[in-house]
């Protein structure tokens, strides 16, 4: 409950326009701990830096919940540009997108969902260059539509090309995971970073941690590829013990973490022979993402304040 109160307070303050203006003006130098840069070239350089340590990258152009067809199509073109930049690279090609940034809330003149039109364009290109695309999960009102669209896209492009995300703190998620088993999907399991009402999301950290373990273990036991997205060393160690006990090969799972957080742990896991990826966000629409990172841990607030005072 304390974690929820803290998150609510931070995100409430972050939503204040005056606070946003100050952070946007003075906070970019601090935000760069979590965000690779303004443009695609910055992000690709970040991927290649991580590759030298045996850690792979997940590129994510920041932006979400667009309200115009022009903006959605512009985001789609920028994501296609990521594919062009990755084409021919010698390392794994991996991109994360939000359906809401490419038109999930919009309809074309012919009556099609614009997000699906753009997703198909992106996945066609990804398939051509051998890239994998992760459909990020957003706040709870979008879960049903996102899962339905993921199912449709997975049936068209295959689960080697497209996967999605499940959030452990939602009460519904264990049932959602089981309902996807027929696809044998590649799922990224996260705890959840949005401020959700207690009617849909668990307020206590202990309950979320327990749900996270249940989801991860169930997906692994079902024989599905699992991206274990956590910086919690106790969870990581438990997963390592679980896969040994159940004879699950390293080729069936990976560890994922955020850019700029626990680089030491990322390197150590990679040296131990595990697949490790860092989620690398970039772009000018960094404020919402940055706010959610600050809301995750009190220590992040102190880090930000120190950095802004130096600025």
From TrEMBL:
<dbReference type="InterPro" id="IPR015659">
    <property type="entry name" value="Proline_oxidase"/>
</dbReference>
<feature type="binding site">
    <location>
        <position position="292"/>
    </location>
    <ligand>
        <name>substrate</name>
    </ligand>
</feature>
<feature type="binding site">
    <location>
        <position position="137"/>
    </location>
    <ligand>
        <name>FAD</name>
    </ligand>
</feature>
<keyword id="KW-0285">Flavoprotein</keyword>
<comment type="pathway">
    <text>Amino-acid degradation; L-proline degradation into L-glutamate; L-glutamate from L-proline: step 1/2.</text>
</comment>
<dbReference type="GO" id="GO:0010133">
    <property type="term" value="P:L-proline catabolic process to L-glutamate"/>
</dbReference>
<feature type="binding site">
    <location>
        <begin position="230"/>
        <end position="231"/>
    </location>
    <ligand>
        <name>FAD</name>
    </ligand>
</feature>
<protein>
    <recommendedName>
        <fullName>proline dehydrogenase</fullName>
        <ecNumber>1.5.5.2</ecNumber>
    </recommendedName>
</protein>
<dbReference type="InterPro" id="IPR029041">
    <property type="entry name" value="FAD-linked_oxidoreductase-like"/>
</dbReference>
<feature type="binding site">
    <location>
        <position position="293"/>
    </location>
    <ligand>
        <name>substrate</name>
    </ligand>
</feature>
<keyword id="KW-0642">Proline metabolism</keyword>
<dbReference type="Pfam" id="PF01619">
    <property type="entry name" value="Pro_dh"/>
</dbReference>
<feature type="domain" description="Proline dehydrogenase">
    <location>
        <begin position="44"/>
        <end position="304"/>
    </location>
</feature>
<dbReference type="GO" id="GO:0000166">
    <property type="term" value="F:nucleotide binding"/>
</dbReference>
<feature type="binding site">
    <location>
        <position position="205"/>
    </location>
    <ligand>
        <name>FAD</name>
    </ligand>
</feature>
<feature type="binding site">
    <location>
        <position position="167"/>
    </location>
    <ligand>
        <name>FAD</name>
    </ligand>
</feature>
<keyword id="KW-0274">FAD</keyword>
<feature type="binding site">
    <location>
        <begin position="191"/>
        <end position="193"/>
    </location>
    <ligand>
        <name>FAD</name>
    </ligand>
</feature>
<feature type="binding site">
    <location>
        <position position="98"/>
    </location>
    <ligand>
        <name>substrate</name>
    </ligand>
</feature>
<dbReference type="InterPro" id="IPR002872">
    <property type="entry name" value="Proline_DH_dom"/>
</dbReference>
<dbReference type="InterPro" id="IPR008219">
    <property type="entry name" value="PRODH_bac_arc"/>
</dbReference>
<dbReference type="GO" id="GO:0004657">
    <property type="term" value="F:proline dehydrogenase activity"/>
</dbReference>
<keyword id="KW-0560">Oxidoreductase</keyword>
<keyword id="KW-0547">Nucleotide-binding</keyword>
């Amino acid at each position: 409950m304390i974690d929820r109160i803290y998150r609510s307070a931070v995100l409430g303050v972050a939503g204040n326009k005056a606070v946003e203006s100050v952070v946007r003006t003075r906070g970019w130098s601090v935000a760069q701990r979590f965000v690779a840069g303004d443009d695609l070239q910055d992000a690709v350089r970040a991927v290649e830096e991580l590759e030298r340590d045996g850690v792979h990258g997940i590129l994510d152009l920041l932006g979400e919940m667009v309200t115009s067809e022009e903006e959605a199509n512009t985001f789609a073109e920028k994501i296609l540009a990521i594919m062009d930049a990755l084409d021919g690279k010698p390392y794994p090609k991996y991109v994360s997108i939000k359906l809401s940034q490419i038109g999930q809330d919009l309809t074309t003149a012919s009556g099609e969902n614009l997000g699906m039109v753009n997703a198909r364009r992106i996945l066609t290109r990804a398939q051509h260059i051998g890239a994998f695309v992760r459909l990020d999960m957003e706040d709870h009102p979008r879960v049903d539509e996102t899962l339905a669209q993921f199912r449709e896209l997975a049936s068209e492009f295959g689960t080697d090309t497209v996967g999605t995300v499940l959030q452990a703190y939602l009460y519904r998620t264990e049932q959602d995971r089981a309902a996807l088993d027929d696809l044998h999907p590649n799922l990224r399991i996260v705890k959840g970073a949005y401020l959700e009402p207690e009617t849909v999301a668990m307020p206590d950290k202990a309950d979320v941690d327990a749900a996270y373990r249940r989801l991860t273990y169930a997906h692994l036991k079902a024989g599905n590829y699992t991206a274990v997205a956590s910086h919690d060393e106790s969870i990581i160690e438990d997963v390592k013990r679980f896969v040994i006990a159940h004879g699950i090969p390293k080729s069936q799972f990976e560890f994922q973490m955020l850019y700029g957080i626990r680089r030491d742990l990322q390197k150590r896991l990679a040296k131990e022979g595990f697949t490790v990826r860092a989620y690398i966000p970039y772009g000018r629409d960094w404020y919402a993402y940055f706010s959610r990172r600050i809301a995750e841990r009190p220590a992040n607030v102190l880090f930000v304040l120190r950095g802004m005072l130096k600025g």
